Amino acid sequence: MNVIIGAGISGLSAGQELRSDFLILEKSSALGGLAGQYRAGGFAFDHGGHYFHFQDKPEIQRHVEMFHAFRRYRRNSKVFLQGRFIPYSLQYHLAGLPARQRNPILAEVLAGPGGPAGGPAQDLERFLLAHFGPSLVRLFFAPYLEKFYGRPLAAMIAGMDKGSIPVPRKEDVVAGALCRRPCAEGYNPVFYYPSGSLQAFIDDYGRPLAARIRCREEVVAIEPARKLVVTNGGSYRYDSLISTMPLNRLLGIMTPPQPFPRKQFHHLSTLVVNAVLARRRRRFHWLYLPETQFPFYRVGYYPAAGTVAVYLEKTIAADSPLDARQVRREAVFTLKRTGMIAGAEEILFHDLKRIPVSYVVFDRGWPRLVPAALAHLRRQSIHSIGRYGSWNYTSMADDIRLARETAGRLNKA
Ligand SMILES: Cc1cc2nc3c(=O)[nH]c(=O)nc-3n(C[C@H](O)[C@H](O)[C@H](O)COP(=O)(O)OP(=O)(O)OC[C@H]3O[C@@H](n4cnc5c(N)ncnc54)[C@H](O)[C@@H]3O)c2cc1C
């Protein structure tokens, strides 16, 4: 029998593909993990993931659409800078900046190498300076990314973000600097959301697997030599183990201890303020907030039947105490300054959610550590997958693909 740890999008996708006998062990009472929803105050809120990115993965789109219909959205994301809403990604839309800022940026970008970034991994600061020049790095990339990562850019490596920092062709930069309308498409121009809700999709996706899922069963120990997982409710023998729990935690519950110290796996923790607003005053999906006056790095709307659902995200220290009143003040300030509310009374309800492991940090240790740890686990018949299992930067569509590929390989073994 195979055992899958976690009934998030990765665990469910692996289960959809596995042909042999298997069991999914899920510590919480609900399916979906960060691709699911939770309820508070009578409202449903997305946990983490919102929109699906299918454009280079038509086979994944066809697969999930067998379970649930999806709606297509033309991306409308903005950067909020000096009181202006400028289309995202900024490097494609320099026309939104005043000439005194636009012209030096344009000159520096044109002097850079241009085109898709390639070559060996270099530090993120040098990568950004080489491709975008110091003016755009100072104006946007450094304040935004340092707020997000909470550490200097020179401490991280470039090229691990799966295209979220696209390097446009020079002609696209020039076109975007000349016209105010979004004439250069940028990256990731469309995305998808389940036509019911995220949870409706997860419920449809998980339904055929219901008999094989054990909720409220947390894996607390793994003994690879005996091919045994121990949970709070029992223990199970496995032939192969697919784990979607965070890699650092997986290594921490293995006996004997593995030669990869947990503290070397660096990650971010995120505080999400989920809120329901009285009305929708802005039309964008995501709004990026590089300025330090905002403690949040990103805010956004997502589709919700009958309500206006928004979220605000900020990076926090993993175990920091939360001052809920202060966070509410920050949320009111941010929503007001960006014109998403006229006053605090337009926030009908809000809820704070901590995501302890939300984004992996690609520091200099990552290339040495992570591939070696994953290979070491595979040699013990443990396949650590998903965004946190593979300790990578992936979307839900990437996670589905990796899970299906992993299960497909096990089917052939
Ligand atoms: C703030 C934020 C915004 C995001 N926005 C997007 C977006 O718009 N689009 C997009 O594509 N992606 C987005 N993502 C990423 C997306 O949420 C993830 O890629 C995806 O949900 C990961 O799924 P997973 O199944 O690999 O992991 P998880 O969702 O973490 O699932 C793992 C499951 O394992 C269970 N588990 C953990 N430990 C144990 C244990 N010991 N025993 C048993 N069960 C256990 C957990 O309860 C969970 O259900 C976002 C992520 C964050 C944090």
Task: Write up this protein.
The two termini are 13 Å apart. The relative contact order is 0.20. 31% of the residues lie in helices and 23% in strands. The longest helix is centred in the N-terminal third of the chain and has 26 residues, at 124-149. The mean pLDDT is 93. It has helices at 9-17, 58-64, 99-111, 124-149, 170-178, 198-206, 247-252, 324-337, 366-378, 386-389, 396-412; strands at 2-5, 22-25, 37-40, 43-46, 70-74, 78-81, 84-87, 190-194, 213-214, 219-223, 228-231, 235-237, 241-243, 267-277, 286-288, 298-302, 308-316, 347-360, 382-384. By secondary structure, it is α/β, with parallel strands linked by helices. It contains eleven helices and 19 strands. It is globular and about 65 Å long. Strands 7-6-15-16-17-14-18 form a seven-stranded mixed beta sheet. A five-stranded parallel beta sheet has the order 9-2-1-13-19. It has three domains: 2-73 and 196-264 and 362-412, FAD/NAD(P)-binding domain, CATH 3.50.50; 78-187, protoporphyrinogen ix oxidase, domain 3 (Orthogonal Bundle), CATH 1.10.3110; 267-360, Alpha-Beta Plaits. Helix 1 packs parallel to helix 11 (396-412), helix 3 crosses helix 4 and helix 3 runs antiparallel to helix 5 (170-178). Bound molecules: flavin-adenine dinucleotide (FAD). Flavin-adenine dinucleotide is lined by residues 5-11, 25-28, 33-35, 48-53, 218-219, 244-245, 270, 272, 313, 355, 358, 386-388, 394-396, 399.
SSE topology:
Layout: E1 2-5, H1 9-17, E2 22-25, E3 37-40, E4 43-46, H2 58-64, E5 70-74, E6 78-81, E7 84-87, H3 99-111, H4 124-149, H5 170-178, E8 190-194, H6 198-206, E9 213-214, E10 219-223, E11 228-231, E12 235-237, E13 241-243, H7 247-252, E14 267-277, E15 286-288, E16 298-302, E17 308-316, H8 324-337, E18 347-360, H9 366-378, E19 382-384, H10 386-389, H11 396-412
Parallel strand pairs: 1-2, 1-13, 2-9, 6-15, 13-19
Antiparallel strand pairs: 3-4, 5-8, 6-7, 10-11, 11-12, 14-17, 14-18, 15-16, 16-17
The structure holds flavin-adenine dinucleotide (FAD).
